[in-house]
Design goal:
This protein is of the alpha/beta class. It has seven helices and 25 strands.
């Protein structure tokens, strides 16, 4: 009898997991179905480059179904709900899709309406986000026309997708306006709810130093309550504590939540529609035959593509073990790594997990890419990642020397000490 694996979401996690499982199971024994509301796949790291003219929107989009291996069924549809007790996904119009194993991979969504004034008069005029394609393209036009004034990059709240991306935007803005010859006419502010530039103490110190070197103001513990803006004038971020941060152009990273259907599915999600998930096995708390991956989970790991990649190895193994009636593999350690563009053709690389913060050294071994140091090599690594994404990661291929576990060889703890405290919520 054919068993059914249903995967909700055709983003990074859903696609690589579907392809990995298809490589393992014969299609006569296991049917794999991917359900997604969109028919296109966006390379999300590329959204950072669009505002600065370093990538065009059509360069980072490909047809979703073409990223899936043969013998994977694709259903383009919204998801109404998941009936956990009946092992059924309910689609609009009452159509039902039965599963033996369900994988939730619908990522995180932008909760724009949760911040008062965000989509008010200045929205897509002098208030933008680069976390979706329309916003990134709109920001490109706004930056092209910007001749000087105050730019504020603001994270409303954590967790967010790719926690380093707002910092990267600041660094690239510094480079962009320097290239245009008007950097001295642009004041850049980074306003964050954290008590430092980043969550992990050593990385926070290094990134904070970079902000200072580049003349970027850091405003910490700023919890955005509302945004006041007009279509043709300056505006302000207003914090819950009464502080105001004025701007001529605001780049806002909104509050994130899980997919709406999760909230309509009793027993599946939490208050933010993320799915409570065992952080080591990626089996959900909702039911033994439901797993989750990537941004859709509540695990205390960074919501980044690398995390999804590393989770995918453990998740695939555990789906196989579950269907074979074997004990699950509890080995996912929260491994994450991130290239951080710093402008002027350089980038940092950080590598960490649940228990270990970013350290200096090299990745993936004693000889490799430098960690916690700006380098041209890291910048080239980030640029090359796009090709690797389409041709290696999404097809579900194993990558030599880069596995799910965080490597420890070639690393050493920096001698510089810091008093910053780690805030777990921002690394989720």
């Amino acid at each position: 009898m054919t068993r059914n694996i249903v995967i909700l979401g055709g983003g990074t996690g859903g696609t690589l997991t579907a392809n990995r499982l298809r490589r393992h199971f014969d299609h006569d024994d296991v049917a794999i179905t991917v359900i997604d509301q969109d028919d296109h796949h966006v390379y999300q790291p590329g959204l950072l480059f669009v505002p600065f003219g370093l990538a065009a929107p059509d360069e980072i989009i490909r047809p979703l179904q073409r990223q899936l291996h043969r013998h994977i069924e694709f259903i383009q549809a919204d998801i109404d709900m998941v009936d956990v007790e009946r092992d059924t996904v309910v689609l609009p119009g009452g159509r039902e899709v039965h599963y033996d194993v369900l994988i939730v991979a619908t990522g995180a969504t932008l909760a724009l309406d949760e911040t008062e004034g965000l989509t008010g008069q200045g929205w897509m005029s002098n208030v933008f986000t680069f976390y979706d394609l329309a916003g990134a393209a709109g920001l490109h036009d706004a930056l092209t026309e910007f001749q000087g004034g105050r730019i504020v990059v603001n994270v409303v709240d954590m967790p967010i997708k790719c926690p380093v991306a707002p910092l990267e935007f600041c660094f690239l803005a510094d480079w962009y306006f320097t290239q245009r010859g008007i950097r001295d006419q642009v004041h850049i502010t980074y306003a964050t709810p954290l008590d430092a530039a980043f969550t992990k103490p050593i990385a926070a110190a290094a990134l904070g130093d970079l902000l200072t070197e580049k003349g970027i103001e850091l405003v910490t513990e700023f919890n955005t309550g509302s945004i006041v803006s007009t279509t043709d004038g300056p505006g302000a971020l207003v914090g819950y504590d009464g502080r105001e941060v004025p701007f001529d152009l605001a780049v806002v990273v909104p509050l994130h939540s899980g997919a709406a259907y999760v909230g309509r599915s009793p027993g599946l999600g939490d208050d933010l529609n993320f799915v409570p998930t065992n952080q080591a096995t990626l089996q959900t708390m909702a039911h033994p035959n439901i797993f989750a991956i990537g941004d859709a989970t509540n695990v205390p790991a960074s919501k980044a593509g690398s995390v999804t990649h590393f989770e995918g190895e453990v998740l695939t193994e555990n789906v196989i073990r579950f269907l074979e009636g074997r004990e699950l593999d509890a080995t996912y350690d929260g491994h994450a790594n991130c290239f951080i563009e710093t402008g002027f053709g350089k980038a940092l690389l950080i590598d960490f997990n649940y228990a270990t913060e970013p350290m200096e050294g090299h990745f993936p071994a004693a000889v490799g890419l430098p960690l916690l140091k700006e380098s041209r090599l890291n910048h080239l690594g980030k640029l090359m990642f796009q090709s690797f994404y389409w041709h290696g990661l999404l097809p579900g291929r194993d990558i030599p020397l880069i596995g799910a576990d965080m490597p420890t060889r070639g690393k050493h703890r920096p001698t510089t000490k810091t008093n910053h405290t780690t805030q777990q919520g921002a690394t989720r």
